[in-house]
Write a structure and sequence with these properties.
It is a single chain. Helix 2 packs parallel to helix 5. Helix content is about 40%, strand content about 30%. The chain is globular, with a radius of gyration of 20 Å. The longest helix is centred in the last third of the chain and has 30 residues. By secondary structure, the protein is of the alpha+beta class.
């Protein structure tokens, strides 16, 4: 299937929000077509050495504002993942032949999701990030919703997007948290000592 592409310096996950300010003429044209035809567009990470091979479809949820010069503020949501088979440069905006895919590996257990969520909340608290995950169903995969709020590098997020097993994705996310937490805990302890004049209360 051929889809229009919007290369961005982000990684979009399924079922996560994506606000966009659209100002380039080629992308205004692309978004206008998507709105008229009620279709989505593919978001792929733009890297120094080219585009990522795995991307995620974005569906326009609402147009937040239209400006007189044609610029748009839109709110999108991640949908299906895809793998690029062939790029098409025949229009002003990039298109690609893609194959859609979902998970075909094992699902994570509820226990592993609960552990992952607990680690996630500790990381956010210690990092001083005020983001509470909402509407999480622990009986369904949650790794993408958690990773969306992560203060992590895009390379790791791109790896998560490519994984086709919820169990593996959740395991990798837990490993990431467990790597971050010792440094964050030391930082939090040092901060508490400094604020108490060298005496831990």
């Amino acid at each position: 299937m051929k889809v229009p592409l919007f290369p961005l310096d982000i990684v979009l996950f399924p079922e996560t929000p994506l606000p966009l300010h659209v100002f380039e003429e080629r992308y205004k044209e692309m978004i206008d077509e998507c709105l008229a035809e009620r279709t989505g567009f593919g978001v792929v990470r733009a890297q120094q050495d080219g585009l990522a091979v795995i991307g995620c479809m974005a569906q326009i949820v609402s147009v937040l504002q239209k400006y007189d010069d044609g610029r748009l503020d839109i709110l999108c949501e991640g949908r299906e993942r895809f793998e690029i088979e062939m790029l098409d440069n025949s229009r002003d905006f990039l298109q690609a032949e893609v194959d859609f895919f979902g998970d075909d590996g094992a699902a994570s257990t509820r226990q592993s999701r609960e552990e992952c969520l607990a680690l996630h909340m500790e990381v956010l608290e210690l990092a001083g990030i005020d983001h509470q995950p909402s509407h999480l169903d622990l009986n369904a995969p949650i790794a993408f919703q958690l990773a969306w709020a992560l203060p992590s590098d895009l390379g790791f997020k791109q790896q998560l997007l490519s994984i086709r097993s919820d169990a593996e994705r959740t395991r990798r996310l837990c490993e990431f948290y467990n790597t971050m937490l010792p440094k964050l805990r030391i930082g939090a302890h040092t901060s508490r000592v400094a604020h108490s004049n060298g005496h831990v209360m």
